[in-house]
Design a protein that fits this description.
The protein is mainly β. It has a single domain (about 40-160), classed as Sortase, Chain: A, CATH 2.40.260. Helices cover about 15% and strands about 40% of the residues. The chain contains two helices and ten strands; from the N terminus they run αββββββββαββ. It has helices at about 10-25, 125-130, and strands spanning about 30, 35-40, 40-45, 50-55, 70-75, 80-85, 100-105, 110-120, 135-150, 150-160. It has an eight-stranded mixed barrel with strand order 3-4-5-6-9-10-8-7. The chain has a two-stranded antiparallel ribbon with strand order 1-2. A hairpin with a 5-residue loop joins strand 5 (about 70-75) and strand 6. It is globular, with a radius of gyration of 16 Å.
Length: about 160
């Protein structure tokens, strides 16, 4: 849908997002849970109404601590960024995305190429994090039966390739 002056709603949404992001990018974000996060980027998934800051994560004892209310990112190899968040908060509607949709990460568009659910025990994180030839996002959140407040039996993994 186009406005009379030829500016698409997507462009307007992107401009609003960028202005909002720049307004708080230099500061730490403190959500309701009181945890302070440094915002290092942004993720937009229009089809599910998701706009979130992204904070970089570091491994601690071979684990990543998932942020409570924003997206966390981790990268150890070329052209691969791993994004995580809780299915009860930030990624509660991630299961509704579709293959072929465009999402935006750090002002770069990516197209969703796959969406799969795996048993938690069947996931090989070395494979998930391996280097790729093209810029690739891997978004992961819990799925399946809830085992406790912060875990579930399965994982939803959405993969997107840079346009």
């Amino acid at each position: 849908m186009e406005l009379k002056r030829g500016i698409s709603f997507r462009k307007i949404f992107t401009i609003i997002y960028i202005v909002s992001f720049l307004a708080y990018a230099a500061f730490s974000f403190v959500p309701a849970d009181g945890t302070a996060y440094t915002i290092d980027g942004g993720l937009i998934i229009p089809s599910i109404g998701l706009t979130s800051g992204v904070t970089k994560l570091e491994l601690h004892d071979h684990k990543l601590d998932t942020p409570d209310s924003i997206v966390g990112s981790y990268s150890q190899n070329t052209n691969k960024t791993f994004l995580i968040g809780h299915s009860s908060t930030i990624f509660k509607n991630l299961y509704q995305v579709k293959i072929g949709e465009t999402i935006t990460y750090n002002n770069t568009d990516y197209t969703i190429t796959s969406m799969e659910i795996f048993k938690k025990s069947d996931i090989d994180m070395k494979d998930v994090l391996k280097a790729e030839e093209k810029d690739t996002l891997v978004i992961m959140t819990c799925a399946g039966e809830v085992m406790n407040e912060t875990d579930a039996t399965h994982r939803l993994i959405v993969t997107a390739i840079r346009n």
